[in-house]
Amino acid sequence: MKLKKFKVTNFRSVTDSGWIDASDVTALIGENEAGKTNLLLPLWKFNPSGNGEISLLDDMPRSRYAEMRKNPENHDFIECVFELNDEERDIAARFGAEREKTETLCVVRDFTGCYGWSFCDDDALDLHEAFEPVDNPVEEEGQEAPEPEKGPNLASVFREHLPKFVYYSNYGNLDAQIYLPRVVEDLQRTDLGSKEAAKARTLKVLFDLVDLSPEEVLELGRASVTERVNAQGHAVAVPAKTEEQIKLDDEQVRERNALLQSASSKLTTTFTDWWKQGAYRFRLHADGSYFQILVSDDKRADEIELENRSTGLQWFLSFYLVFTYESEDSHEDAVVLLDEPGLSLHPLAQRDLSRFFDNLSKTHQLLFTTHSPFLIDADRLDRVRKVYIGEGGATVASSDLGAGRRKSGVLDAGATYAVHSALNLTVAESLLLGCCPIIVEGPSDQHYLSAIKNILIQKGKIQPASELVFPPSGGAKTAKIIASILMGRDDALPMVLLDSDAAGKQAAKSLQDNLYQGVKERVLLTDDYVNDLTGTEIEDLLPAPLLVQVLDRMERRAQQDFEDFHDSEKPIVPQIKSWAKNEGFEMVEGWKVQLALAAKSKLLANPDKHAADKIIEQWTALFEKFG
After folding, report:
1. 359 near 366, Cβ under 8 Å?
2. Do residues 115 and 155 touch, judged by C-beta distance below 8 A?
């Protein structure tokens, strides 16, 4: 199962988040106290990998606690929609479901922990009453036929297929020196606060992962004790030991050292296999009642306490422990939830973390909260969801990055600043880091071209010498201004790609007659890279069936589907506008960006399905011009 979208209701500060689309990597951006964490926690508690118990007192909205606690079974706090794979749809069909109606599954959970199940396209089917047909018992002569046996129902089968959710926050970061008696005590307590519980959880998985018991390490360490504390708190010497006691103590010390050495080797090996950014070596050391994690690497051979290494390394090691251990039984299906990851990392290290997320997303979906522009990929703004405080003080999430709270008629830009900063960083990298900028007209162009770039690189069609970035100029008329700003240090003008509509052709002529007079070939028009069409726009570079499909799903107001209106021998954008006018409505502001985001997501998810060889050839010809 793959999480497609989710909605949080009546959970802490969230009254109704609205539907939040989930992609391979989803970033929830928002100001402090906007409620970002309160969108991750209910997801975790939907099907937690570890801990994650539902607490009525902590999780119900305080304003409704007195009312809701009386009948928690009547209040759902999370609703998730999952996309089923072919195997799961086959299972549903065996249980009597119509296979064509089993593409998506809706699952809710209430405050008692019970689940509700339905197919999004067939809510009439009761999954609790759906059983796989079995052979009826043979009725013997003179005996009443026994009741046919029923196996598990479809709901219980799908319960085993739900992905686990692994949640991690900075509260779980390990300390350098750990007092073992406190560890033993905390691991047995159920009344710890959130910070203490998170740290205890990380310690538990550390000891479990390396096959150690804190009780055993503590007990074996008592052999080296030379003094104890009496009831009055004074240190008193331990009586002299016999030869037999000394021999036994020696065995215990050697046993503990061997266990710690084995555990150190296992932690080093497994962490190195997982994290490729440095060759770290860990040594677990115990001294009496204290336990330490020492770290060295190829650049710094001296062993240093974990606490005195970078907070980034502390975070990576602690997250690794929780993720690896808790997702072990469902490694390929776990959904990773990270609360404010990489806060203490240098900006460049945050960029590395962003790339690490991309690698992790090949096997796991990932959702994280942030307000750092360095963790937002300007090429993948379709992954970003804005979290803000709506009317009445409740948390709201939206894919519309311009959405926000209005107060006295003023739009609260809030966390959108992080997105603006990410876009500005893309432009800055073009100037400072040797990237190759290609100026485009708008953000939709940027979305389409970044997707095409990734597909062509994956297919080995292009091997750009430097990173290709697509700063939007805000329209054809302002392309000249952006080109002047982005002129390279060697005075080389950046490439420009414009639509072949009237505005684009006029802007191209103006550029070629003035700023680009000596390098007219650096100003490109879409008509040159779309076969058999004229007057094209960036959308015509994309497979038309894909855009048609996405548009019909996106726009439900029309009586006639755009699929029945579309003419493949004409540019698509004027047709969309004409179709909307004929149907009696206007396309909403920013519709081209919405279309681009949705089309980009589907295209990247399955490029071979949507992009035929002919399309790939057109794209390759265009990108070869970029250099």
Report:
1. no
2. yes
278 backbone dihedrals φ, ψ, rounded to 5°: 180, 150
DSSP reduced 3-state for 24: coil
How far apart, in Å, are the Cα atoms of 611 and each of 12, 98, 459, 540, 569?
44, 30, 12, 13, 18
Q: Give the whole-angstrom CA distance, residue 272 versus residue 263.
A: 14
**What's the DSSP call for residue 85?**
-
Residue matched to tokens 């052979």? 135
CB half-sphere exposure, 322, CA atoms < 13 A:
31
Both ends of the chain: CA-CA distance in Å? 40
- Is the entire prediction scored with pTM above 0.70? no
Amino acid at 556: R
- What is the rounded CA–CA span in Å between residue 378 and residue 553? 25
Tens digits of per-residue pLDDT, 49-95? Answer: 877 899 999 999 999 999 999 999 999 999 999 999 999 999 999 99
Task: Give residue 410's pLDDT.
Answer: 42
The owner of tokens 């195997």 is 87
Cα(17)–Cα(388) distance, integer angstroms: 10
Q: Which two tokens stand for residue 54?
A: 């539902």
Rounded Cα–Cα distance for residues 412 and 5 (Å)? 26
Beta-sheet pairing, 384-389 with 365-370: unpaired
Q: Which tokens hold the place of 237?
A: 């010497």
pLDDT at 301: 83
- Give the C-alpha separation, 496 to 512, whole Å: 11
- Where would I find the beta strands (DSSP E) of 206-307? 227-229, 235-237, 280-287, 290-297, 304-305
370 within 8 A of 344, measured Cβ to Cβ: no
Rounded to an integer, what distance in angstroms lies between the CA atom of residue 59 and that of residue 12?
5
- Chain segment 463-497, per-residue pLDDT in tens: 988 888 888 887 767 777 777 766 654 567 889 99
Burial track 502-523 (b if 16+ CB lie within 10 A, e otherwise): eebbebbebbbeebbeeeeebb
User: C-alpha dihedral over 554, 556, 561, 562, to 10 degrees?
Assistant: -40
Angle at 451 between CA 429 and CA 558, to 5 degrees: 125
Residue 253 phi, psi (nearest 5): -65, -45
Burial tier of 370 (Cβ tally within 10 Å: 0-12, 13-18, 19+): buried
> Residues 481, 484, 487, CA angle at the centre, nearest 5°?
145
Count Cβ neighbours within 10 Å for each residue of 438-458 and write b for 16 or more, e otherwise. Answer: bbbbbbbbbbbbbbbbbbbee
pLDDT 10s digits, 352-410:
778 778 878 888 899 999 877 777 776 676 788 888 887 777 888 877 666 654 444 44
Q: Above 80 in pLDDT, residue 446? A: yes
Q: Is the pLDDT of residue 236 over 70?
A: no
Interacting residues of 204 by C-beta distance below 8 A, sequence separation 6+: 187
Beta-carbon contacts of residue 219 (< 8 Å; ≥ 6 apart): none
Res 570: pLDDT: 95
Which residue, chain included where needed, has tokens 């080797």? Answer: 265
